[in-house]
Structures are given as C-alpha cells and as structure tokens.
Amino acid sequence: MTIAPHTQLDHYEILSPLGKGGMGEVYLAHDARLSRNVALKLLPAEFTQSPDRVRRFEHEAKAASALNHPNILTIYEIGVTDHTHFIATEYIEGETLRQCLSREKLSLNAALEIATQMASALAAAHDAKIIHRDIKPENVMLRKDGIVKVLDFGLAKLTEKQPTSSHDSEAPTLIQHTTDAGTVMGTASYMSPEQARGEKVDARSDLFSLGIVLYEMLAGQRPFEGANMLDIVGAVLHQEPKPLPSNNEAAQPELQRIVSKALQKDREQRYQTSKDLLLDLQTLKHELEIEARLKGRDASNEVAQTVSLRPNPTDQLQDNHTSSSTQIILTELKRHKLGVALTLLLLLAVGSYFAFFARSNNAPIDSLAILPFTNASGDPEMEYLSDGLTESLINSLAQLPRLRVLPRTTVFRFKGKAEDPQRIGKELGVRAVLTGRVQQRGDSLVIQTELIDVTGGAQLWGDRYNPKLANLLAAQSEVVQAIAGGMRLKLSGAEQSRVSKKYTESAEAYQLYLKGRFHWNKRTGETLKKAIEYFNQAIEHDPRYALAYAGLADAYMVMHFHAGVAPNESYGKAKSAARQALALDETLAEAHTALAYVLFRYDWKPAEAFREFQRAIELNPNYATTHQWYGESLTLAGRFDEGIAELRRAQELDPFSLVINTDLGNACYYARRYDAAIEQLHKTLELDQGFAYTHYNLGLAYTMKGMYPAALAEFRLTQQLNNGPYLLANLAYVYAASGQHAEALRLLNQMQEIAKQRYVPAYSFALAYAGLGEREQSLQWLERSYQDRSSDMTYVKTEPRFDSLRSDPHFAALVRRVGLPE
What we know:
There is one protein chain. Helix content is 54%, strand content 11%. It is built from 33 helices and 17 strands. Helix 25 runs antiparallel to helix 26 (674-687). The radius of gyration is 30 Å and the shape is globular.
C-alpha cells in the first residue's frame, strides 16, 4: 500500500517514494527532530507478524546500527508506529550498482574501486560478527562523490524461512519454494553453495557473493546463469564459471586468481576472511595505478591495459602444461596408445612436482616486518643509529607497491624485547621478519642482519657488514638491495632507483638527520627543540638535503601542540621548510604532507591543502601520516564520511598507532557519532592506557553525551599525564555545562593568571565562555583567535561545543573567513 506524501509517521514526514524491494517500501522522509532527510523503510506485515521474528530482526538490526564505517549505510533508528515497523537510515543520493551496470560496462579501475570498498565494508561487519547474507548489486549504492555504500547489513535475516522446530535457533538461510514450479524465494544468482543448500552460513558466504558481483562487473554477466531459478541454483552448486574475458591481457592472471579464489565452492578453499580479499584487491589496484604513473599514463583511464602485474609464471606454466598435457593423454588413450599415454602421464607428474616446487620456493614474499635493530654497543648515545637505520630501511622498502612493510609505530612496540621473531611475525600477520644488530667500533660499524621466513622459520638471507661511519649510506643501500633479493622481489628500474635513492652524500649530514628523527619521535617540547637543532646542523653540512628540510617542517609543525609555541612562530617556519624541501625534491611525499597540513591549519586554504595531500598519496600511497592528516582535515571541513575513510586507511597501514586510532575516534566525535567515538577510544586505550591524547578525546565525547562525572575523570587523568591550558578550558566547560558555574569561573580566572606568564590560546577562553553561556564573550575570544591566526580556528565549523553560537551571523562569518564552507 503506497503512502501519500506529507503523511506523518511518528516524527517523520513522508516526502516521496524511493522504491520497493524484498525488505518493503522505501520512502524519502524528513526527520523533524533532527531536521534532516532520511530513507524510511516500511517493513511488510508478513515479516513482522511473528513476535519471535521481530525480536530476532530487532537484535540483528541493532547490531548493524552499531557499525560505523564509511562504506556501510548508517541506521539511525528502528521503530514502530500504528503497528507499522520501520527503519530510518541515512539518505544517499546516487544510484544502485545494478542501475549503473544496466547502463554501462565498468572499467577495470572502477570495478576494482567498487569491490575494494565493498570488501572494506564486509571486513568491518565481519569483525562485528555480522553477516550480510544478501550481497548483490541492488544492495550497493554508488554516491556521486565515488563513495560506495553497502545497504541492509543484517536485515536479510528477517526474510529467512523460520524453523519448523526449535532445534535450530539460528534459522539458516533456506531456499523457499512456492506453489509455482521452478520459483525460488531469495537471490539465487548471488547465493553461496552452502546458502543454497540451506546450511548455516558464515562470513565466507558473503565473500562468495562478492566474488559473483566482482565477476559481473568485470565480465558484464553473472558467472552462474540458467533458464529459471532452479537452474541457477544448480549452476551455483555444480558448475564452474567460465574464465573471465581476456580483454585485459596484463591484468588477466591476477584478476582470474582473485575471482576464482572467491568463487571456490568449498568454503575451506575460499578466502577465509574479508581482510584477505581486501588486501589482494588493494594490492592489485595500487599496482595498476603506480605502474600506470611510472609509464606516464593517467591512472583514471583504463590503466590495466598497459600494466604488467606481479608475475607468477610457474602458476601459468603449470596450468597451461597440465591442461595441454592432459588433453594429449586423453587423445592417446582414445587411440589405445597406452604406452605413450603412460609415459606422458609420468612426465606430467614429474613436471607438476617441479612446477609446484618452483612455485613454493620462488614465489616473492609480499609482507615484511623490520624489527628495531639492537644497539649492541650498549651506549645510549648510539641509540639514534640503531633506531634510525631501522626507520630508514622501513621508509625505503615501503615505497615498493607490491610489498607491505609494517610501519615504525607497529614494530617499535617490540623494541628491547627478546622474543622469537617467528612468533612476532605470526602475530603481525607478515610473511617475513628482518632482525638486526648495530655496533660501533671506533669509526667503523658492525651491522648484522637476518631475514626469517615466518611460515617455516627458515633463514631466507643473512649477512654481516663492516662499513665505516662515513660509508653508512652506501651500506644501507646495499642492505636494502640484499633484502629485496632475499625476499625474491624482482625490482623494476624505477623501483631500484626509489629504494636506493640517496638524499645526501654527506655522512655527517645523514647522522645528524637520524639524530633529529630520533628526538622528533619522542614528541616533547624539549626533544622537539633538539630535533630542530639537529636538522639545522644537517642542513649546514648539506644545504641541498631535502629530507632534512622535511624533518624540520615536521618538527616546527608539532611545536604548537607539544611545546605551547604560538602558531605564527611554528607554522610559518614549517611552511618555509616544506617549500624548501620540495624545491630541492618535488617527489618527497613527506614534504607535500607537511605543506598540506600547514595550508589547511594555518593558511586556511582547504582546496590547496587537499591537492597537496592527494599529490602525497600519489607519490607514496603507503605513507600513513598523509592519510591521517588528510582524514583529519576532511573531517574538520565537515566531510565526515571521507575523513573517516582516510583515517581508516591510515589505521590499516599503521594499526598500532595511538594517535591515528585516537584521531579516528575524534573524527566520530566531530561527526556527532558519540557512541562510536567512545567505542573507538576505548579500543585505543587497550593498546596503551597511558596515552594522554586518547583520554582527552574520550573526555570530549563523554561531555557531549552528558556524562559529566566521566568527562571530568578523563580530563583529570589527562592533566596528570600531560598538563596544559587546554585542559583547564575543557574542565571549565564541563563544570559550566553541569551547572557548577562557580567552579567554572574559578578555572577561568586560573587561565587568565597563566596567560600573564605564557601563551594561552584565545580559543581556550572561547570554549570556557561558551560553556558558561556567555555568547558575546565567546565570540570576542574567537575573533581574537582568528587575529592570532590560530590553527584552532579550523575546529569552529565542526566543534559541537560551539553549536549554541551557530545561529549568530558573526560566528557564520568567522567560519567563512577561515575558508571553510558553511
């Protein structure tokens, strides 16, 4: 029954119909409470007549509503009014993947982009123990900005056939036959074999369905076809799909491997986790893009037509040899030439053995953890050398698109721990682990390295180097080349140049640079000052040392946060250093990232900043800091879904980074997703209970949830770990919001006394006055913050604690003057 426009359902006003599907009718509606448009799904009565079914559905839908991922449709509310059950979700402007496929055939690049985002959504859902059960093009929305949204997570359970007895509370998905012969209820074309058989499904069933969707995007047709539903189910159960069309010869072997693995009928032979499939898709996509750039092609075009993927020649040789040899054997058997056939059979067996042996021993290793080198000298002053050499090797090898190298943040958790490298490698999920020791003897070094295969524990390669300190750069380049050889990586000429690149010929400058990075990584006011000294000394030794300028930019950029330096003193110098680095070497992703951050936070030029971030990603897609700061900037510009997506990419690259994990929770805070923020920040504290920044942001989320005692506790804990004037402002806001105005005023007076001695951001006073409800005072302090060119002003567009000021024209003007769209 169609509902007329302007009909009121609870606090939702129906605007227009959007469509109809297996889950019922969908309408565009307006949410009067939160003044936003939503998609309202009205569930058919036959799905909601059973109280048991409704309870199970509500449990599943509530679990799905807790998912917080940029590629998953957000569920706002599950409700009932006048006996009508409804689901309110975000409204997406765009089209379904089915509509897109019916209009045009997708390019390889577009198909991989869509499949990658779908796999990312599945990875998040499966981590939360939620299975979709109905992955198909109709349940995938393509937004105009390129974001893919997967719909109806967990809701397919509502349409399952209910058990006739109580022995199976999970009610596995069954094919339901109606009275019309040959008709099957459900989406048979996208079912996994176990789903079609009525067996209990798990996450691997979703991966089979995604494999079907990927095949359809690439081939222009589904892999399992039939005259009716029962024929299709028979094909899913018993037939193998035809090979993908070979209209893209270079990409064909890897594409075929990925699709074939996803479509294995035996789920034990299939991809076992969505993250495994996601990693393969991301790797292939990055290879295509990077190879296209290296060849001077635009990656947005049909990049795959000019690309050679990572070779697996023994696979192809074995497959071709097996199929052709088998055909010869069958032919000879038909001719009764049994002697010839038996001889050929023996040759085939021997050939298959050697093909398998060659493949297992020569396949390149695709993931690596470089554990912190041990400072065997015992001299703390030499710690910079062992740490610096480790970090330099990580940075060099991370530029290889076919190799996943775990970042510094992840591996340095194991510094100083005498643990089994093979066990660490298994814990980190890599194929190989590199360990090393560095010892100084006079003006010489002893560097010992060992590369270990995590699978079997065998040593792949090991060596000992005895360079002079003056020849450390050459020794490092030699180690990089040896590691690549030990991992059986075949490097192109461009890749050889990248990993062997020397940024300076001065050994003294290089050692000073390593000392600068060593102190920069400690992130305190004093160590940052030391880092700046060392970077400047490195530049004195080699004025054309681009990396040293990039280090200088990084150091100045964080001085504002960690050392209380006024923004005009820190950001201006950071910008100058970043531009100098790029003038010397335009290909430095680190320098583009630093410049982008300054452009956004200090110059208030978001468009220019985003271009610099994108250039940095183009140069090095595996540099986690770029994705982190880009995600943070997109969030502050109000582009929440894009910002969270970039931060999740940073998290994938550097999963144990405390600051990245905290920034992800912080982005949810600015997006007003407070429950998701609290959940993410608690997960971060599981990594390190003593990280002040996480406790600080948890206090913010508790504040906006009205959990004032919890917020005060988090801010006080932050104060113990790392005190600062910002904390007084946050405490004052909480006291004011909870009605304790006298205590808030006491803290405000304390801030004013501190400001007589040292820099206290005007933004802090604006926050405190906003909590007290002093609109004019808060606006005056925000104006002063603007005049100071404080980077804090980039928060005004999205900071929830300023929501009471948003209706004021002066506040709106401030947002515009900072360069942020309203």
